[in-house]
Write a structure and sequence with these properties.
Helices cover 65% and strands 0% of the residues. By secondary structure, the chain is an all-alpha fold. Pfam families: Fungal_trans_2 (PF11951).
């Protein structure tokens, strides 16, 4: 939860985590994914291995605070994101409906694109107009548009939509985010994270449009303070 809140609010983590990712740890996590219906993947749809990547990137943000990030480090993170396999536990899903399994795979792949966007915007300081960000965002939107709006998968997609909504630059994409997030029952209630997050995104979009520039990750901090007061 600490890592996730740090990502979507641009706030520092409460702790710095040991994200040592040896082959043994990787194998254990993959086996856990095969056999268990618990953890953040079960609750939010995000594979636990992506949580480790978010924590790793956050640690690097502290190491390279206001400094230029070593390109070799960025390449290592990119390779780790690219090589993480998703959908490995779909054959263990209790629901035998193939549509359910496809939706689950879409959610996991969407999270991969969020990790890419977080890497480039939060760590490297890229804007929403950066070609690397645009590529990841385009893949994310294609996955969203090719998935029919419904509680499943949107109840698992609203957090990644809140995270990468900062990279939305045209009205069609922004309206898609707004409609699909607010269609989730929990997000339609004022004062709830999803509902407040939509207002934060709208503030980012309006402010950056007024200033005539693409958004950057730091805009999250400004808009959360303006909208939510934190």
């Amino acid at each position: 939860m600490d890592v996730g809140l740090s990502v979507v609010t641009n706030r520092p983590q409460l702790f710095r985590y040991d994200v040592s990712y040896t082959a043994e740890v990787r194998e254990r996590m993959i086996k856990q994914d095969y056999t268990a219906d618990f953890g953040l993947e079960w609750l939010y749809g995000i594979p636990d291995r992506f949580i480790l990547l978010f924590a790793w990137i956050n640690g690097l943000r502290e190491d390279y605070y206001e400094g230029e990030v070593d390109s070799d480090i960025v390449f290592r993170v990119e390779e780790q994101i690219k090589n993480e396999r998703v959908g490995q536990n779909l054959h263990t899903a209790t629901d035998s409906d193939p549509v359910f399994r496809i939706r689950r795979l879409v959610v996991q792949e969407c999270w991969r694109q969020v990790v890419y966007i977080f890497l480039y915007m939060a760590l490297c300081g890229a804007s929403a107009a950066d070609p690397r960000v645009d590529k990841a965002f385009s893949i994310f939107m294609r996955l969203i548009r090719e998935t029919k709006p419904a509680r499943n998968p949107d109840a698992f997609l609203f957090i990644p939509m809140l995270a990468c909504g900062v990279a939305a630059r045209n009205e069609k994409d922004r309206e898609t985010f707004k409609q699909r997030i607010l269609a989730v029952r929990e997000c339609s209630v004022p004062g709830i994270v999803g509902n407040g997050g939509v207002h934060v995104l709208q503030d980012i979009w309006a402010r950056t449009d007024l200033e005539g520039r693409p958004a950057i990750w730091a805009d999250f901090s400004i808009s959360y303070k303006r909208v939510v007061g934190i």
